[in-house]
Write a structure and sequence with these properties.
The chain is mostly helical. Helices cover 76% and strands 1% of the residues. The longest helix has 32 residues.
Length: 308
């Protein structure tokens, strides 16, 4: 009995009770954790809660808020301006992500065949636009497209005897100009991630495929691309989040009228120009739900593909 009692006492002492865990915790670690919790609460949690509350109100920042229930959400679903901004956002996201993923693979696959300094130099050249400030990239492309008199690209087309293009002054070409600029700006990030995934492919599998007579295209199709799927899913998910929230490019490189007005710019105009804070908050929450659904769909689809 005495041995059992001693064993039970030692087992109780060995357990980490909540109070004992707090006493053993480092004061510095607790202080850093508290600072992070406060930071994210102030930056994210509190504004997100206020946005949810505002989406059920009608408030112009002057009079007192008036509760309107789901009226703001119903207004958004019947608003032609919202539907147009939604269409622009979806078209831009689909085109940009498709072009970025395809170009990243087309560059990363042959780049993986290089080794040493040539690969590093080319990788640095592709990644330079990523670290360039967004405003600098926008000013550069504005100079190329229509500043100071017609733009550098139109001057080049003239010298080649080709017809000049309106670019950002055209409601049909303006969105494609933004797509090209965004692909150029962030392509290096997708190339780096794709190249890292390709380098993680076991060399033994590629060597076995080469011994069986598989060429480089067959190795890419049956070995590299299937093993690269987790990286591609990550690129697509992060690209969806980034493209839907993109603001500076559409605000500073806007086309004529509302041809390039996406959901981010429309939310800004509602909240800060029209002072329709309740409706703007509802639109921003619809954007959040879109991103959440798209992310969950991509992750679930990837998980299902792993089970087959």
């Amino acid at each position: 009995m005495s041995n059992q009692f001693a064993a039970s006492r030692s087992a109780v002492r060995g357990k980490d009770l909540p109070g004992r865990r707090w006493r053993k915790a480092s004061p510095l670690a607790l202080g850093v954790a508290l600072i992070l919790v406060l930071f994210y609460s102030i930056i994210f949690v509190i504004p997100f809660g206020v946005s949810i509350w505002l989406s059920f109100q009608n408030w112009d920042f002057i009079d007192n808020p008036v509760y309107v229930g789901l009226a703001n959400y119903g207004q958004a679903l019947a608003d032609p301006s919202f539907l147009h901004a939604l269409r622009v956002t979806v078209e831009f996201s689909v085109a940009e992500i498709f072009l970025a993923v395809v170009l990243a693979l087309l560059v990363a696959l042959p780049l993986s065949r290089l080794k040493g300094a040539p690969q590093q130099v080319l990788l640095l050249a592709y990644y330079l636009p990523v670290i360039m400030p967004v405003i600098v990239s926008i000013l550069l492309w504005e100079w190329l497209l229509y500043l100071p008199s017609g733009g550098v690209l139109n001057a080049l087309l003239q010298n080649l005897g080709l017809p000049t293009q309106p670019f950002l002054n055209s409601p049909t070409e303006a969105l494609w100009c933004i797509i090209v600029m965004v692909v150029w700006s962030y392509l290096g990030n997708s190339i780096v991630l794709s190249l890292a995934g390709i380098n993680d492919v076991p060399e033994s599998l590629l060597e076995a495929a080469r011994l069986d007579g598989a060429g480089f295209v067959q190795q890419c199709r049956f070995i590299i691309l299937p093993l690269l799927q987790p990286v591609l899913v990550y690129i697509v998910v992060t690209s969806v989040i980034g493209t839907v929230q993109m603001f500076e490019q559409f605000f500073l490189m806007s086309g004529p009228g509302n041809s390039t007005r996406n959901l981010a710019v429309y939310t800004y105009q509602l909240g800060f120009q029209s002072l329709n804070l309740g409706y703007g908050a509802a639109v921003s929450l619809i954007m959040f739900l879109m991103l959440l659904i798209a992310t969950v769909f991509q992750v679930r689809r990837f998980q299902q593909s792993l089970t087959y």
